[in-house]
């Protein structure tokens, strides 16, 4: 009996092992099929005539990974992320059927990309960041797009990518091969100005601050003198980062840091998170320099004095207190009207949010850090039959983007599959100047119609009078029609971008904007070390001098090695 | 009761009642607060002035919720998951527990299998191999992935509980059945299972609650939101996002939606099934747990 | 016993459950070998280069490793203690309550939080403990400054432990209450006649009556020393509290799935599994030794 039982158990085990083995076989078969396809397709693509906008004769299918915001309401009745005018546009113009290999909310998109990479089960194309790009190149998962870019990128896109001075292509070139299609974004996304409630300044009889000292005085007045006049001690001087934002933008994520302290650091000539040239000319990491310690000391004092939001770092969304009229100042890029400001002025039409190029350094100069011209990439799976299809989709998007914006009434083509942003580096500044000239009557809207790379400028100059009321040279909120559909865009351009048009920007770029090899393993932990200790220093739970300990730790735990690598890349 | 009703005893009683009631109140108030937020206006919620009563009472968030088809899709997926998961749990648990409740003397392979089973509860290869396995089995986007993966990780505990219950059943019953020539299947189905309703109800309740509440596997195994179970759906609404990776229009949409009252309404509705189920099963699970665990 | 020839039926009974566990728990364990590789997703788990213990060496160099192990154990041990003592006190109080209807109602209410998910309770708690939330408003009434509860690394572990004990105490009371009902009423009657006070009865009859239960639960808690509660912390933490609130499970999730460090995440996960297995074995042994009770 006993022996029988054992044999029975063994049989079960054998059976199960067989099952497992079978499923493994299936897996390897699939993979080998994939490589077969690859060899055949490379020939077919090179046979075809390369037409950047040409439709396929027979419909092809592309399965992509797409970010879909669950709370998005911009789609019209009856439309879905897979069935909407953008997807149909791709189908009609290019004869490409778009399918979703996966979708994920913004917060889960990275996780889905990571699982796809780890399991080597990739969508035909998707958008990734620099870290994922490097990992995928190393795993040999990507199609070589050198030829695709040469033959298929539209002249307009090539022009914009070239306008980055080679940086965009450098970021995606590995061993001389282009492994992804880079985006190119306007530099305005990377300049973080100070947004201030001008109505509060006026009410308290204050001038806009210029230096850090003046900024502190304004913050103090905003906290202590009850600027909202409700008799309660409930206002915030300077907002701080929420859980989704950072103390400062860094070389890997150098744009769109909301509610950070970027300006206060750069006014100290401190560039934490950036690789800058050290005294001897070699690259150094900004977070380890004494200027950063000084800036931290300033922030620490401000926090201790209650000038900075006590709840920084924990809020889900620092914008909420901007909307509800509790915050007096925050840092952010030009497009903050797309963020909390439009809501804030809807709640309270007197909230006169203006943007300033402050604080200035001790010489009275504005020295913010500058962003990378490129941060996201379209990658194509190795073995996909039509590696040029994503490039065609991007050509199509760029050629028609301004039409889309018209259709949306301002929302933007967020649902366009594989959407990358293409903008000339000076897009916003040029737009702002154009709108001002039209408002002043020195130029006509028609003068700006023939500027294809600036895809929104025509619409902007045409609609500027819808939102801006007289007098045209006064940007205070009472001289705007906040109900106009073009208000958000026009306010972003005329108010949000004004500081960098009117002030000379002595910006500081990072020496590199992508990872080096040993960063792949070590960076996350070094970054964490940095983030934690800086936050604690500012919030006063660690002494200021723990900064020195951080610098030692950072160097020992791989920082020195990484610095050497950066030097190699740069020189 | 023979205890004396002296004055001190009465005071003791009153103090006791006050303490116990206030503790019980702490278990209700957070939920009450959520309800109050869901019934308040958006601006009142953003300003944080709600305490225990709705401010600017209105039903807007519930009206918005009715238009949210994905919420109800996810609700339905969760229901399916619970029914399949708890059903499977109900069938497999006694089948595993009965042989394993035997001693090594009666069933020689028992200890090896028991430790193997325990081993599966404690070791895992991480999420990525699990993901690969599900992919090979073609279970991506299937509710079965949630049922089977989640179930495999929780069933072991339920088996242990049931084993303990079975062990505490009077030995004489089984012996008498054996004398009558009953086989193991007969003993399990006609004797043990009818006597084990409390513990089976308990493990079923555990399974229902687990499958209703689990959110992570939905995030991993479902490639599209339309397949998310309810808790996954809610989780992705409540967690924060990274605006540095967003385009400006995405951000705009996000800020328009930042809607605490609607979130509160969703949270409240998601609690209701649990609120409805557990009081009914209460008398069973009290028996199930206590008989299954300790016998003084 | 006389169960001749039953073994094959026992195996047959366990077959479906065992197949289930095998496919969904045992097969995915192959992923453990990632910890010993320089994992290259393009080449897959079976073809990546082996690097021996390199990842483990790196793991021990990291500042994070001791921190997350300490955080995990600190939070878990505090939880075990809290979940032993609070339910015990509550059960003793409830046991003293002589109004059966009220007793039932309180019991039903305090079970409630146990059945709600951390997705939901996380959302609710973050709201309640927000800077302008009701708790801080209450503090304001007493003239206290508002506290940034979930942003304070020094408070975070205690908030985690506190909210977990709050969630579970009602449910954990069940076992104590059962032990209390198991005490022979004749003992109370006898001492009542002797004129003993309620406190004396508590000390001399009630507490000794549930000693075994308490010891057993304490020993079993040992198996959980490395489980500090992924769901709870995942839904409540933020980068401000990583230093005290990041536990092994959340760290492994972030490292493996968000930062693409697959090998490191697997290695740490494996270390946790091994340590957990040892702890469970020890607690099994201790429970058997002290209370003569076999868990499984």
From TrEMBL, chain A:
Q: Organism source for this protein?
A: Gracilibacillus kekensis
Q: Pfam families, per this entry?
A: SBP_bac_1
> Which keywords does this Swiss-Prot/TrEMBL entry list?
Signal
Q: Which SUPFAM superfamilies match?
A: Periplasmic binding protein-like II
Under what name is this protein listed? Putative aldouronate transport system substrate-binding protein
> Which residue intervals are annotated with compositional bias (Acidic residues) in the record?
27-51
Which segment of the chain is annotated as a signal peptide?
Answer: 1-20
User: Source organism's superkingdom?
Assistant: Bacteria
Quote the PANTHER family the UniProt record gives: ARABINOSE-BINDING PROTEIN-RELATED, DIACETYLCHITOBIOSE BINDING PROTEIN DASA
Q: Which PROSITE patterns does the record cross-reference, listed alphabetically?
A: PROKAR_LIPOPROTEIN
Query: Where is region (Disordered) located?
Result: 26-52
UniProtKB/TrEMBL annotation, chain B:
* Localization annotation: Cell membrane
CDD domains membership: TM_PBP2
Q: Name one GO biological process term.
A: transmembrane transport
UniProt KW keywords: Cell membrane, Membrane, Transmembrane, Transmembrane helix, Transport
Q: Which PROSITE patterns match?
A: ABC_TM1
Topology versus the membrane: Multi-pass membrane protein
Q: Which residues form the ABC transmembrane type-1 domain?
A: 75-281
Q: Does the keyword Membrane apply?
A: yes
InterPro entries listed in its UniProt record:
MetI-like, MetI-like_sf
- Bilayer-crossing regions: 12-33, 75-100, 112-132, 144-166, 187-212, 264-281
This protein's GO cellular component annotations are: plasma membrane
Its principal location? membrane
What family is this protein classified in?
A: Belongs to the binding-protein-dependent transport system permease family.
Q: What is this protein called?
A: Carbohydrate ABC transporter membrane protein 2, CUT1 family
From TrEMBL, chain C:
Q: What's an example GO cellular component term for this entry?
A: plasma membrane
Asked whether the keyword Transmembrane helix is assigned, the reply is yes
Kindly list the residue ranges recorded as spanning the membrane. Answer: 12-36, 68-94, 115-133, 169-188, 209-230, 264-287
Species name? Gracilibacillus kekensis
Name its GO BP terms in alphabetical order: transmembrane transport
The record's section on SUPFAM superfamilies has: MetI-like
Protein name as catalogued: Putative aldouronate transport system permease protein
- Gene3D superfamilies assigned to the protein according to its UniProt record, in alphabetical order: MetI-like
Tell me what topology the record assigns in the membrane.
Multi-pass membrane protein
Q: Family, per the entry? A: Belongs to the binding-protein-dependent transport system permease family.
Kindly list the places in or outside the cell where this protein is found, as annotated in its UniProt entry.
Cell membrane
Which Pfam families does the annotation name? BPD_transp_1 (PF00528)
Tagged with keyword Manganese: no
Could you list this entry's UniProt keywords, alphabetically sorted.
Cell membrane, Membrane, Transmembrane, Transmembrane helix, Transport
Occurrences of domain ABC transmembrane type-1 (ranges): 69-283
């Amino acid at each position: 009996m006993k022996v029988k039982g054992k044999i029975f158990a063994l049989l079960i085990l054998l059976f199960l092992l067989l099952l497992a083995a079978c499923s493994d076989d299936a897996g390897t078969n699939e993979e080998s099929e994939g490589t077969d396809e690859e060899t055949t397709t490379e020939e077919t693509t090179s046979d075809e005539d390369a037409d950047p906008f040409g439709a396929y004769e027979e419909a092809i299918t592309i399965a992509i990974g797409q970010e879909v915001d669950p709370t998005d309401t911009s789609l019209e009745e009856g439309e879905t992320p897979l069935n909407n005018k953008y997807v149909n546009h791709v189908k009609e113009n290019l004869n490409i059927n778009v399918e979703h290999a996966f979708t994920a909310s913004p917060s889960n998109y990275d996780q889905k990309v990571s699982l796809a990479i780890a399991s080597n089960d990739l969508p035909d194309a998707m958008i990734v960041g620099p870290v994922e790009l490097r990992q995928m190149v190393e795993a040999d998962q990507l199609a070589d797009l050198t030829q695709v870019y040469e033959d298929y990128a539209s002249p307009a896109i090539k022009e914009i990518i070239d306008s980055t001075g080679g940086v965009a292509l450098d970021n995606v070139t590995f061993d001389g091969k282009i492994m992804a299609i880079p985006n190119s974004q306007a530099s305005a996304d990377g300049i973080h100005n100070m947004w201030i409630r001008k109505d509060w300044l006026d009410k308290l009889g204050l001038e806009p601050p210029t230096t850090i000292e003046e900024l502190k005085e304004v913050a103090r007045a905003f906290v202590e003198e009850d600027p909202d006049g409700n008799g309660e001690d409930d206002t915030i001087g300077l907002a701080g980062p929420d859980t989704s934002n950072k103390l400062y933008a860094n070389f890997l994520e150098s744009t769109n840091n909301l509610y950070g302290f970027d300006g206060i650091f750069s006014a100290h000539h401190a560039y934490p998170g950036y690789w800058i040239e050290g005294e001897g000319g070699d690259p150094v990491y900004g977070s380890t320099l004494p200027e950063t310690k000084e800036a931290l000391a300033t922030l620490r004092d401000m926090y201790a004095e209650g000038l900075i939001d006590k709840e920084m770092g924990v809020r889900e969304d620092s914008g909420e207190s901007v909307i509800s009229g509790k915050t007096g100042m925050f840092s952010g890029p030009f497009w903050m009207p797309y963020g909390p400001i439009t809501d804030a002025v809807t709640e309270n039409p007197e909230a006169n949010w203006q943007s300033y190029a402050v604080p200035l350094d001790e010489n009275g100069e504005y020295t913010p850090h500058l962003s990378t011209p490129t941060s996201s990439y379209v990658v194509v799976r190795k073995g996909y039959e039509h590696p040029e299809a994503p490039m065609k989709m991007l050509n199509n998007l760029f050629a028609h983007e301004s039409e889309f914006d018209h259709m949306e009434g301002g929302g933007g083509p967020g649902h366009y599959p594989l959407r990358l942003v293409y903008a000339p580096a000076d897009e916003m500044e040029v737009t702002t100047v154009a709108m001002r000239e039209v408002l002043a009557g020195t130029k006509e809207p028609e003068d700006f119609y023939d500027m294809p790379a600036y895809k929104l400028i025509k619409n902007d100059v045409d609609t500027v009078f819808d939102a801006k009321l007289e007098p045209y040279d006064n940007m205070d909120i009472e001289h705007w029609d906040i109900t106009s559909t073009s208000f958000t865009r026009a306010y972003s351009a005329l108010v949000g971008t004004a500081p960098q048009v009117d002030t000379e920007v002595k910006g500081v770029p990072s020496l590199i904007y992508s990872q080096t090899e040993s960063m792949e393993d070590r960076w996350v932990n070094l970054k964490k070390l940095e983030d934690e200790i800086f936050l604690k220093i500012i919030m006063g739970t660690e002494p200021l001098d723990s900064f020195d300990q951080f610098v030692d730790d950072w160097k020992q735990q791989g920082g020195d090695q990484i610095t050497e690598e950066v030097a190699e890349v740069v020189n | 009761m023979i205890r004396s009703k002296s004055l001190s005893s009465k005071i003791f009683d009153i103090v006791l009642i006050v303490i116990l009631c206030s503790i019980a109140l702490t278990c209700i108030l957070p939920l009450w607060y959520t309800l109050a937020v869901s019934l308040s206006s958006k601006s009142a919620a953003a300003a944080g002035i709600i305490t225990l009563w709705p401010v600017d009472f209105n039903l807007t968030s519930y009206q918005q919720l009715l238009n949210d088809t994905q919420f109800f899709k996810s609700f339905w997926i969760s229901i399916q998951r619970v029914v399949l998961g708890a059903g499977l749990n109900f069938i497999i648990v006694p089948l595993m527990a009965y042989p394993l409740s035997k001693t090594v003397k009666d069933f020689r392979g028992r200890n090896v299998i028991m430790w193997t089973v325990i081993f599966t509860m404690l070791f895992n290869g991480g999420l990525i191999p699990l993901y690969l396995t599900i992919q090979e089995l073609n279970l991506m986007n299937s509710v079965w992935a949630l049922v089977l993966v989640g179930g495999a990780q929780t069933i072991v505990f339920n088996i242990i509980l049931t084993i303990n219950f079975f062990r505490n059943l009077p030995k004489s019953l089984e012996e008498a059945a054996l004398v009558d020539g009953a086989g193991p299947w007969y003993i399990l189905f006609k004797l043990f299972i009818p006597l084990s309703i409390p513990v089976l109800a308990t493990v079923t309740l555990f399974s229902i609650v687990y499958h209703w509440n689990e959110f992570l596997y939905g995030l991993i195994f479902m490639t599209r939101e339309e397949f998310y179970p309810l808790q996954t759906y809610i989780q992705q609404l409540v967690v924060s996002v990274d605006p540095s990776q967003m385009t400006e229009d995405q951000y705009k949409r996000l800020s328009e939606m930042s809607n605490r009252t609607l979130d509160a309404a969703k949270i409240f509705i998601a609690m209701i099934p649990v609120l409805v189920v557990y009081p009914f099963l209460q008398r069973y699970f009290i028996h199930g747990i206590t008989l299954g665990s300790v016998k003084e | 016993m006389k169960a001749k020839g039953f073994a094959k039926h026992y195996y047959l009974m366990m077959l479906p459950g065992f197949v289930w566990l095998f496919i969904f728990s045992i097969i995915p364990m192959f992923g453990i070998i990632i910890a010993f590789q320089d994992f290259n997703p393009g080449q897959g788990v079976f073809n990546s280069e082996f690097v021996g213990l390199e990842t483990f060496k790196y793991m021990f160099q990291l500042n994070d490793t001791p921190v997350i192990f300490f955080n995990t154990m600190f939070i878990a041990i505090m939880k075990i203690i809290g979940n032993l003592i609070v339910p015990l006190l509550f059960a003793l109080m409830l046991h003293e309550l002589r109004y059966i209807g009220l007793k039932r109602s309180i019991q039903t209410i305090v079970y409630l939080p146990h059945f709600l998910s951390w997705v939901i309770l996380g959302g609710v708690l973050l709201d309640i403990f927000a800077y302008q939330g009701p708790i801080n408003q209450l503090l304001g009434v007493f003239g206290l400054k508002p506290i940034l509860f979930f942003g304070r690394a020094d408070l975070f572990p205690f908030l985690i432990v506190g909210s977990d004990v709050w969630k579970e105490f009602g449910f954990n009371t069940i076992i104590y209450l059962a032990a209390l009902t198991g005490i022979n009423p004749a003992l109370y009657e006898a001492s009542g006649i002797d004129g003993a006070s309620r406190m004396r009865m508590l000390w001399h009859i009630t507490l000794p009556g549930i000693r075994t239960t308490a010891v057993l639960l304490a020993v079993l808690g040992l198996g959980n020393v490395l489980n500090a509660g992924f769901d709870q912390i995942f839904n409540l933490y933020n980068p401000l509290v990583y230093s005290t609130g990041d536990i092994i499970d959340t760290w492994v999730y972030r490292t493996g799935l968000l930062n693409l460090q697959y090998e490191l995440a697997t290695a740490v996960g494996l270390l946790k599994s091994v340590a957990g297995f040892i702890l469970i074995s020890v607690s099994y042994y201790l429970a058997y030794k002290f209370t003569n009770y076999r868990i499984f």
